[in-house]
Amino acid sequence: KMDDDGDDIPQLSSHTLAALQEFYLEQQQREGMKTSQGFNQYSIGSIEEDWQLSQFWYSDETASCLANEAVVAAGRGGRIACVSAPSVYQKLKEQDGKDFSVCILEYDRRFSVYGEEFIFYDYNHPLNLPENLLPHSFDIVIADPPYLSEECLQKTAETIKYLTKGKILLCTGAIMEEQAAKNLGVKICKFIPKHTRNLANEFRCYVNYASGLD
Fold this sequence. Notes:
Elements: H1 14-35, H2 60-74, E1 78-83, H3 86-94, E2 100-106, E3 118-120, E4 138-143, H4 150-163, E5 164-173, H5 177-184, E6 187-188, E7 203-207
Parallel strand pairs: 1-2, 1-4, 2-3, 4-5
Antiparallel strand pairs: 5-7, 6-7
Helix pairs in contact: 2-3, 4-5
């Protein structure tokens, strides 16, 4: 039982306090960057990861590589859909490309700051999509299902197959290789995607066309 005089109230160690202060300082600096002139709303990290939503952003190099692959695969004037892959969407927007159009299907409503290109998406309802999102209207669909589960991949696959004219670029765990082939007919690529934070699970890319990722 604790004494009433408060002597036993747990105190934060100096190390923990220092770490907390550093965290808050970094957060303030980030907020300061966001409000300062020249802040790019499309830069990776402008919207921070929410681990509760199983969000892990790609490294800058990986996002650039996947965005470039999507542009080439979509072709001139092509349409690209990013399903649960916001960092690729951001990198595509950074390119300010006039030769392609892109939209982002995402559960996290923070991405609604991107206006009409944002489409709220819940993989549990894979075909609950706006009427103006016509079937087979995208030259390539890039998808990164939020969870490494058979159910999540199956449902996301329904969305992908509805949207794509044919080309699919899937990013998910190496352990999902068999399921990815079964649900989407995709094969693993040599290219290994990296994230801004190291993930416990080995991550890979899969495609169903002759890509530049090999």
